[in-house]
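Changelog entry: the SMI1/KNR4 family protein record was regenerated in this release. Current contents:
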Amino acid sequence: MNNLKFRKLGLSEVEIEAQARAGSRLDRRTSKAYRSMYETGNPTDEDIKELENVVGAVPEDYKAFLKSHNGGIPSATLLKTRSNERVINSLLALKAPLGFGDSIGARMKVYDGRVPEKTFPIASAGGGDLVLLNTASGNLGEILYWDHNFESDEDDASDYFDNTEVVAASFSEFLNKLTLDVG
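Regenerated structure tokens:
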């Protein structure tokens, strides 16, 4: 997975205090959620099995990432696709406290019926876009970029792929495509 590093999701007590000293004070609820996420451990095999019970089979490279990082903010955030340059904000956590927005579960609730069936969100991108992992048997592990600006007008978009672009054949390939955003 090239030389990527991942900053842990959430904030430590030290980081929260540093933000307050810099004039960016978080409200009590947000501070608690960020601290709680920072203190959350990585997913276990059982946690991943629960995810697979909901979404279907998950590729081994993605399972390994979840077990070692539980999401995170990558040190390189630029993804060049055929159509554009995209910014990846964070890879979503599997294990997260209730109410933490950068989690797979939270994004699945928000985007239910809006993203194609047999996919689920694994990363947040600029402007409300997502990175999806395909769990369909013929395309297992394929990574899609989902552009919310062109989502379906239908109430159920479970078979709508017109606003997606395949960006990698696997999660490992996706990570290897991330580069530094020097702009």
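The mean pLDDT is 92.
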